[in-house]
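A further point concerns the way the authors explain their paired sequence and structure data. The central task, working out the structure tokens from the amino acid sequence alone, is never made concrete. I therefore recommend that a typical entry be quoted early in the introduction. An entry of this sort, consisting of the sequence and the corresponding backbone structure tokens, reads as follows:
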Amino acid sequence: MPAPRRDEQTDADIRYTVDDETFDELADLAGEHIAGVAVWEDSITQALGEGEMTGGAVDLDVYLESGVYFELYGVLCYPDLDSEPLSGTAAIDGQFAALVCQGLTLAEIAVDDEDSLVLVLGADNRPILYLNAGAWTLDEWEELPDYVHSA
């Protein structure tokens, strides 16, 4: 399944960093099962006319079974802490298509040295992907969209 196009603009409350209070709230989500993931073909920066992202950055949505989801912008996806990020929207989309079926969880919420959000996705008590987001929002969902990779 190809990654969907993101043609709509958003008025969401986009965050760039995680403060201590927000971190404590997000930490409660650790351990939740991933219901689905959508990798976007186009970035929100393109939709807003702000240019293109460079490198291996993608936009994606991570849906948790509890009914909340993260919209993540400018995400670098690392298979481990010592590797280069994955690159290419199609490759990242394919990676998520395979991983979601294996029963991913949100293993941990973390921040990097610049207080940017990092979601650690895992399975079988081991980390599989580190999602380092340049920006993010958190919202609720009731029904998974058709274009989402789901278990």
